[in-house]
Amino acid sequence: MRHTAILLMGPTASGKTDFAISLRKRFPCDLISVDSALVYRGMDIGTAKPDAETRARAPHKLIDFLDPEDSYSAGEFVRDASREMDKIFAAGRIPLLVGGTMMYFRALTKGIAELPGADDGLRREIDAEADEQGWPAMHAALSEVDAEAAARIEPNDRQRIQRALEVYRASGRPLSDWQRDSAPLRDDIRWLKVGLMIEPRGALHERIERRLDQMLDGGFLDEMRQLHARPGLTADCPAMRSVGYRQLWQYLDGEISLEEARDRALFATRQLAKRQITWLRSEDDIFLVDPLEAGAIDAISASLAQSL
Description:
Order of helices and strands: EHEHEHEHHHHHHEHHHHEH
Distance between the termini: 14 Å
Number of helices: 14
Strand order of the largest sheet: 3-2-4-1-5-6
Helix content: 40-55%
Number of domains: 2
CATH architecture of the largest domain: 3-Layer(aba) Sandwich
CATH class of the largest domain: Alpha Beta
Number of strands: 6
Strand content: 5-15%
Largest sheet: 6 strands, parallel
């Protein structure tokens, strides 16, 4: 028997949490977070994490279960999400997976490719080139051999650039080819995909800027000071590469002013939203709706009702 799960995807600041809670009131759904930053404890304001009252009314799985010093992979997410979905299916309810980490959604629905193993020699070679040329130059080199992967990776994301180049140099095949060849991991699940797409883009940019300023006014910098003071936490930890956190870390290290940190965070968040929208548009069989339009929740509900 095939189960059904709902995927609610969208760029940052598109209102995903509010829509998920509204859908939970209309359908027998339980929520699972699909967000690579919400997994971390102590990262609340800068991630726009649902507050305790909201989560008491509408519990979210896969939130607040790791320390920010820990790493978390797409493979671990697939394992954890599958476990939570099976519990929800067993209770006779429908998993509603909500978030903006598109790589996690893709890994869950398309599976994870059996990639070439780590090659320490190649990694040292790539690191040496980066020391000489800089990671933006390595990102440019990646775009020449794997434009699709480069479009999803930020020019300063050392870990992901290194891995994508390592896979290509080890196998002669782009990372994106390996990922496309992966088999679906859960072929016992029917996925109903909903995407929140705000148009025009300027409206989304305004929401992103307004929310960032609300975060800063609401104590984001104090939250960041507490994280910065943790003995085992460094700027290289995956949690601290999250947008906003990376830029405030640079401010606390004295590298840039607070104003510049705010402006860099705003730019990085808008770039993140751009990549998320690109992912959304590449999804097949997805129901796209503008969350700012009147009746958006009714349109989503009607679409889901026809398929459930």
